[in-house]
Amino acid sequence: MNNKTIHPFQQVFFAVIFLTILSGGSSVLLAFQKELSPEQTRVFEICNTTWNMGIGAIFGLLGSKATNLFSTDQKEGEE
């Protein structure tokens, strides 16, 4: 039996990517509407905000993983 485990980082990363793509897609669909009601305008603003936060979170998560790469290079250079 092949039992694979998914690391917590991967779970968070893929959840953020999924929600970011979902909000970005919704924002694009609403942007192509000719005229939006006030409720649709509010949903568009929310989707746009969550898209921006999701992109920031993705770069933040990737940056947190990249710090391990740079710290090992510095330790090797100091020796």
Overview of this protein structure:
It is a single chain. This protein has a domain at 24-66. It is 82% helix and 0% strand. The chain contains two helices and no strands. Helix 1 packs antiparallel against helix 2 (38-78). The N and C termini lie far apart (45 Å). The model has no long low-confidence stretch (mean pLDDT 86).
Give me some keywords for this one.
mainly alpha; 82% helix; 79 residues
What structural class do you assign from the helix and strand content? mainly alpha
- Catalogue the unreliable spans: none
- Number of DSSP helices? 2
- What proportion of the residues form beta strands (DSSP E)? under 5%
Distance between the termini: 45 Å
Helix content: over 70%
Shape: elongated
What's the mean pLDDT score?
Answer: 86
Number of strands: 0
Structural Rg: 19 Å
User: What is the chain-wise order of helices and strands?
Assistant: HH
Characterize the biggest β-sheet. Answer: none
Can you give me a brief rundown of this structure?
The chain has a domain at 24-66.
How is the topology of this model organized?
Layout: H1 8-31, H2 38-78
Helix pairs in contact: 1-2
